[in-house]
Design a protein that fits this description.
single chain; 327 residues; alpha/beta; TIM Barrel; 8-stranded parallel β-barrel
């Protein structure tokens, strides 16, 4: 019988975004000490990277208005990169004072989504981020650019691949380390994902490429498989599936980290993530944010979590089995 596992032990770099992308969408303000504790617990799970917070204006994202306090208060774990979202020069100055490992810069591949989310056109965003890149380059801080709505825009529909590739090319020429292709609005589908990933890997093999899926239409794990088929080995995910996009009607959250890790592990990939520990963290999120989370594995258990048969049925089952063995 053939081995159904396909990963062959290949390393997949899991990047946890719940503290930033997840909590920024919550109606309740999670106390600073609780945010720090969450990051510290996630740091012990084996992630390659944890996105801690956002240095956006506190007025724009009140939920993360304590960015400095959180970043300075966390306990660093060796082998984990600590990333933060940096929107502009002011954000870069604040972030650089907090000993970050990576600055994650964000703009949209869609003109209308970029204007809705950032209140400016794409060229204005590119020029602003170019200044940030110039400011950070030469330091020890790595630079990643996340292209939002790379697979579809709720206002324009399809976003042309050529448009996405053009921005990747322009950022690559500025010397960024990585690019994240974000399905911000949950519009991506597997063949589309495979096509774009194939092109990015072909024309920009030097870039550290990450895929960032939302599960708005239930396709996040299917899209993950499509990206894996094209050699992608870095994925963002959010514990409990927290997160979402305020400009994507019906949006749920990010792909759930524990669900993705569970799937990848069954397939033979090596994530280095401690799934039981992570599931424990996920179970505690409801009390932190005031509502249940989206994760399926936490609700149903891992595939190998077997159950005891009802006692009345077990007696009949054992009797039938013994009768068969005596024949």
């Amino acid at each position: 019988m053939s081995n159904l596992k396909t990963g062959g032990g290949k390393r997949i770099f899991m990047q946890e975004v719940c503290p930033r992308d997840g909590l920024q969408n919550e109606a309740v303000f999670v106390p600073t000490a609780e945010k720090i504790a969450l990051v510290n617990r996630l740091s012990q799970c084996g992630f390659a990277k944890v996105e801690v917070t956002s240095f956006t204006s506190p007025k724009a994202i009140p939920a993360l208005s304590d960015a400095e306090e959180v970043m300075k208060g966390i306990r660093r774990t060796e082998g984990v990169e600590y990333s933060v979202l940096v929107p502009n020069m002011r954000g870069a100055e604040r972030a650089m004072a907090c000993q970050i490992d990576e600055a994650n810069l964000v703009m949209s591949a869609s003109e209308s989504h970029n204007f809705t989310n950032l209140r400016m056109g794409r060229e204005a965003s590119f020029n602003q981020l170019s200044q940030v890149i110039a400011e950070i380059k030469g330091s020890e801080v790595a630079i990643n650019v996340s292209l939002s709505a790379a697979f579809g825009c709720p206002f324009e529909g399809d976003v042309p691949e050529n448009s996405v590739m053009n921005f990747i090319d322009r950022f690559a020429s500025l010397g960024v380390r990585g690019i994240t292709l974000c399905d911000t609005t949950g519009m991506a589908y597997p063949t589309q994902v495979a096509s774009l990933c194939q092109k990015v890997k072909k024309y920009f093999p030097e870039l550290e490429t990450t895929l960032h899926f939302h599960d708005t239409r239930g396709l996040a794990l299917a899209n993950t498989l499509a990206a894996l088929s094209e050699g992608i080995d870095r994925f963002d995910a959010s514990t409990g599936g927290l997160g979402g996009c305020p400009y994507a009607p019906g949006a749920s959250g990010n792909v759930c980290t524990e669900d993705m890790v569970h799937m990848l592990t069954l397939m033979g990939y090596e994530t280095q993530v401690d799934l039981p520990r992570l599931m424990g963290i996920s179970r505690g999120l409801a009390s932190l944010i005031g509502h249940e989370v989206h994760g399926s594995v936490v609700r149903a258990g891992k595939r190998d979590d077997l159950h005891v048969m009802p006692e009345s049925l077990e007696q009949n089952f054992n009797a039938c089995r013994q009768a068969r063995e005596q024949v």
